[in-house]
Write a structure and sequence with these properties.
CATH superfamily of the largest domain: Clc chloride channel
Helix content: 55-70%
Mean pLDDT: 83
Strand content: under 5%
Largest sheet: none
Number of helices: 20
Order of helices and strands: HHHHHHHHHHHHHHHHHHHH
Number of domains: 2
Structural class: mainly alpha
Low-confidence stretches: 441-478
CATH class of the largest domain: Mainly Alpha
Length: about 475
């Protein structure tokens, strides 16, 4: 027997009347959703510029590959000089900056050091420069900072008394960046839950989730509702996947943990000779990193230049014509690109490294041209490098339409992430702590959109607590 509803017609009418009576609530919703559209469009623009930059680089080096030995270090040095001179907050991935801006100890007037509309524009242009140089870097991490900066700017247009916080806007923007960059709205929502959000209200707000999904739908409407790499075809049975899958999970977990540790220690800095050189001569050091990346790229036949999407797609289709040492060479090129200090992320290169490892393990075990093992390598290394297994699993599943591999992809991501945690602290969290050292006390020179020209030595917390460091090293502009 059905129970009677407790909602009377009168109460429903009152609820509707109350909902429609507050214009500020509807104005706030319109502002948030409007800026969500702008955030999605900004990521689409970054995608277009990135594709143009990579195409330009390969046109320059196609007939004479040796030109990369001159072009890559020169452009890398120029990008790093411009970054340090005009937008120090745009260096690196961009995800640590968003995490730093979300820290509760950061005063509102200092969030512009990490996230702002000005930094979003700078990040968009400088990331394009990094890819034009041919560095092994990606646009997905920068998309997080770009979209977060756009959404953060929405606070200026919210009606007075709005309950929507700056923090919530940045969480929505950062997650929207992931969703739009990978054409995976669900992956954006999970990224917000797993990486950015630490408060229940950020996770449960229907308006903010709608903003994340709307930004992703902007990318879908432009690029089409298709998986990035198409649907993979696998002939392997679930029983045949477990042993190679376990080997791939362990290999990618170890490699991803080492990669994460190298990136953290390199960007945080230490007392070794290279760290001192990077501190004293950052532009010359960036040029040296660019030269090393160019040498690796020439040795690999050009396979390690750029984000690696083309090579990953080739591996997924079973056309493995890459260099025998592709995975370790891509690993080195990505690490050096990050160490240079040029703006750029590691999501796409991580997928490429993982695809290479999956291909190698599959060949060693006698499973040639099996796309399932490539996909397992992708999810394993991405989960290990970022230590965000659920986000990695959903992103890869949506990119390859791997619904038949759901359990295998999820298990591989979990195992690889667990192995990585034995080797390294979470990369983004560690770099975010280093970013916090860029705050000053007092914040007389800070503004919402302009970071100070000098790097202060004191942290954000106003209570006099000592600076937080990573590995007992002083941070060097990660």
């Amino acid at each position: 027997m059905n129970e009677p509803s407790n909602a009377s017609p009168a109460s429903v009418a009152d609820s509707v009347r109350e909902e429609l009576s507050d214009w500020r609530r509807w104005a706030a919703r319109a502002v948030v959703l409007g800026f969500a559209v702008l955030a999605g469009l900004s990521v689409v623009l970054l995608t277009r510029l990135s594709e143009w930059a990579l195409s330009g680089f390969f046109r320059i080096t196609e007939s004479h590959p040796g030109w990369a030995l001159v072009w890559t270090p020169l452009v890398t040095a120029a990008v790093v000089w411009l970054t340090r001179r005009w937008a120090p907050g745009a260096a690196g991935s961009g995800i640590p900056q968003v995490l730093a801006a979300l820290d509760q100890n950061v005063p509102p007037q200092q969030r512009g050091l990490f996230v702002s509309l000005r930094l979003s524009v700078a990040k968009l242009l400088l990331t394009t420069g990094s890819l034009l140089a041919g560095l092994s870097t990606g646009r997905e991490g920068p998309s997080v900072q770009v979209a977060a900066g756009v959404m953060h700017h929405a606070r200026r247009w919210l009606p007075r008394g709005s309950q929507i916080s700056e923090r919530s806007l940045m969480v929505a923007g950062g997650a929207a960046g992931v969703g739009a960059a990978f054409n995976t709205p669900l992956g954006g929502v999970m990224f917000a839950i797993e990486q950015l959000s630490r408060k229940p209200e950020d996770r449960s707000s229907g308006l903010l989730i709608a903003a994340i999904v709307l930004s992703g739908l902007i990318a879908v409407s432009i690029y089409g509702d298709k998986a990035y790499f198409g649907e993979i075809q696998t002939s392997a049975s679930p029983a045949a996947l477990w042993w190679p899958g376990l080997c791939i999970a362990l290999a990618t977990g170890l490699a991803g943990g080492v990669f994460s540790r190298l990136v953290v220690q390199s960007l945080v800095g230490g007392h070794d000779r290279l760290s001192r050189w990077r501190e004293r001569r950052p532009v010359a050091f960036a040029a040296a990193c660019g030269l090393a990346v160019a040498v690796i790229g020439v040795v690999s036949g050009g396979a390690t230049f750029g984000s690696g999407y083309a090579t990953t797609h080739t591996l997924l289709t079973g056309q493995d014509d890459t260099h025998a040492l592709y995975a370790p060479l891509r690993f080195l090129a990505t690490w050096l690109s990050a160490w240079s200090g040029a703006p750029g992320g590691v999501f796409a290169p991580s997928l490429a490294i993982g695809a290479g490892i999956g291909s190698d393990v599959a060949q060693w075990l006698g499973h040639l041209r099996e796309p399932a093992f490539i996909a397992l390598g992708m999810v394993g290394f991405l989960a290990a490098a970022t230590q965000a297994p659920i986000t990695a699993f959903i992103i890869v599943m949506e990119m390859v339409e791997g619904h038949a591999l759901v359990l295998s992809l999820m298990a591989c991501a979990m195992v690889a992430s667990a192995v990585s945690r034995l080797v390294s602290a979470p990369m983004y969290a560690a770099l975010a702590q280093a970013q916090l050292q860029r705050c000053s006390q007092p914040a007389n020179d800070c503004s919402a959109d302009r970071p100070p020209e000098t790097t202060p030595s004191r942290p954000c917390p106003p209570d006099g607590t000592p600076p937080q460091t990573v590995g007992d090293h002083r941070p060097l502009s990660p």
